[in-house]
Structures are given as C-alpha cells and as structure tokens.
Specification:
Helix 1 packs across helix 4, helix 9 packs across helix 15 and helix 11 packs across helix 15. The relative contact order is 0.16. The strands form 2 sheets. This protein has a 6-stranded mixed beta sheet with strand order 1-2-6-3-5-4, with helices on both faces. It has 15 helices and 11 strands. About 40% of the residues lie in helices and about 20% in strands.
Amino acid sequence: MIKYERFVLENGLRVIVHEDNSTPMAAVNLLYNVGARDESPDKTGFAHLFEHLMFGGSANIPDFDEPIQNAGGENNAFTNNDITNFYTLLPAGNIETALWLESDRMMSLNFDQEVLDVQRKVVIEEFKETCLNQPYGDVWHHLSEMAYKVHPYNWPTIGKIPKHVEDATMEDVKDFFFKYYRPNNAILSVAGNVKLEDVKTLVKKWFGEIPMGNVPTRRLPIEPPQLRLEKKIQEASVPVDALYLAFHVPERLHKDYYAIDLLSDILCNGSSSRLYRRLLKEQQLFTSIDCYVTGSIDPGLIVVEGKPSEGVTLEQAEKAIWTELNKIKAELVEAEELEKVKNKVESTLVFSETNVLNKAMNLAFYELLGDVELTNQEIKYYEKVSKEDIQRVAQSFLTEDNCCELYYKAKKDEVEVVC
C-alpha cells in the first residue's frame, strides 16, 4: 500500500507526495499531459523533439545536467504517444535542486536558435539510426499506419518522417511549448525521504508563480472499428523474416484491460507460456516470439510478433500462431495457468513499489488517468479476472477481421554468401 497526499496549486499544478523514510533518496517526477497523439499529422515528432529541447537550458540554467550531478543525482526523460515524462533521482536533502531546475524550464525555456538547430539534428540522427538504419526499425511506422486510419496513433512517437522535425521553426516550437508545457497540464510527484509540509513549501516557492496556460481541449477522432483483415508485405535488408499480428483492444481504463493484459501473458510471458513453449521450444517453428499489450490511454493493440526458424515460411508461422489463438478461444484456460500469470503480475507490481522512482512515476501516471488510488487497487482488478473473462476477450478481439498482419521479409538478393 502506497500512502500519498495530494494537493493542487492555484495555477493548476497537481502534486502527489509519498513519504518513504526507508531510503536516503528522493525521486522528483514531472509528467506533462502531452504526447505524439497531440501533434498535427503534418508536424509529427514534436513531443519527442521537446523531450530533447527541455535539456537545452533555460533562463537561469545553461546546463541542466551539471547541477543535478553536483547534487549527487541523475535525470532522464521519455516520451510516448500519451505523455512526456521527466524524472530525477537524488539524495533527499537535495530535492530543491531538482524542483528549481524543473520550474525554471517550465517558466522560461531557452528558445535559442542554436539549441533548436542542434537538437533537431540530434533527433533526425536518432530517427535515422533507430528507424531507417536498424533492422526492423520502422516496424511501428507500418503497424501504426495499418491499425489507425483517423486517430493520431497513426504515427510513432519519433514521428512520421524526419522532415517534420527538420522543418520545425522557432514559431512552431514556441507555439507547442506554450500550449502544453504549462503547470495546469502537468503532474508533479515526489517520493522518498521527504516530509509533506517541506515539499509543499518548496513546490509553492518554485512553481507557485508560474502562470497557467490556455491548454487546448483534446478532441481526438475516434478510430472506427476495423471490419476486415489488414495485410502488408514489407521487404527490407533484415537478417531474417519476421511476422507481426496486431489486434485492436480497448483503452487503458476499460474494464477488460486487465483480462487482455493477462491474456497476453498466458500467450507469451516466460518459458512456460503457450506460444513460447509450444511454438518455439516444442515445435521449433520460431527463434523468438512475444506477445504484449501497448497499454495506451486511448484504444490500443495486443501484438504477437515472432521470427520463424530457418526453413519455416511466414505462412506456416502465422498458421501455427492462429492455431494457438483459436485454442485459447475454444477452451477455458486451466485455473493453475491463470493463477500463475496473476502471481507474476502481482510480484511485478509489488517489486515496483520497492523503488522510489517507480512509485513517483506510477503516482503521476495514475493521477493522469484520473484516479491516483489505482496505484493501490490494480492488483485487485487483476485478481478478479476469471477463466471466462480470458476466453471472452480472446473471442472478442483475437479475430481475423480485427487483425493487422505484417510480413517483414528479408530481401533475398541482398543476402551475402561467405565461402
């Protein structure tokens, strides 16, 4: 059970504080309610670009990393379709340093053309390195485009194409910043060896004077139901063929999320899971196989992906996967099998509570979802999932009409023959 206190500043900044005197450390986590889904189709990659720009200095801080390192801490950030998250872990006695740094860049980010030029190049190089020059690096460009026709999950976090970031102007950057990086669009969580009243004082000192912004109301188009199988064959310079099957599933707060998450674990989480044990170990049809849920705030995907063994065609591999999917739709899972994956989930959730940074991140994310108490209640929701629930969601969502099928084929003419 994670105990916490919550308060809100007059400018709309939501703050969650968790006192934990079992550690000398503290985590300061600042979550902004902005991600790739908030971008325009012709200006993608901006949320990720801002993750980089936020480290480019602010009015009183030319170098964000140096003060954190001098305070004995470390910091980083990540962006996805839904959020942008900045976090710092440092000795608890030095949390004011982290709060000062976060407030300064929220208040007055350094809008410097040189910084923008540098970070644009960094992001473009990252795009090239991770998407264009890495085997299977553009898989999510294909899957996103196949699965989403109107919703902005249509593109991955890094953006559709490098040119969108390359063409970003200072005006574009300022407009994006003042829309979304405002206290009333942020959640600050502090966890560790701190006292609530001390944190209140420091947060009011450093964030209280920052004016709230006119955050636009999010009106995203609703993705219509998929009514037929989406198929695509992509040839590329990759070592071996790969197969991806993506199925639409409901949003993170839907009542079926927990059953779908457990379904993905039953299919492929660990050496005793169905796809791993039967298709990789016993039949040796795959060299690797996985199944996971995207867990996005808006309706997401459950994905099965694998690389067939030598001599196994993509068609044979896909047929074998569908055989296993149809089994779990036709027959109730064993009670022991379901209990095993529930225990794994519970141990993962409990283990995450041993780390103050994880606790700070979780508290902020659940606050964003609208119920910070979920951090203590989710285990109960997993425990309530029945065998019938697993079968029901499998029958509902693991269907051909609801599937996006991507064959990722290695170009045969580019395979080197070494004598």
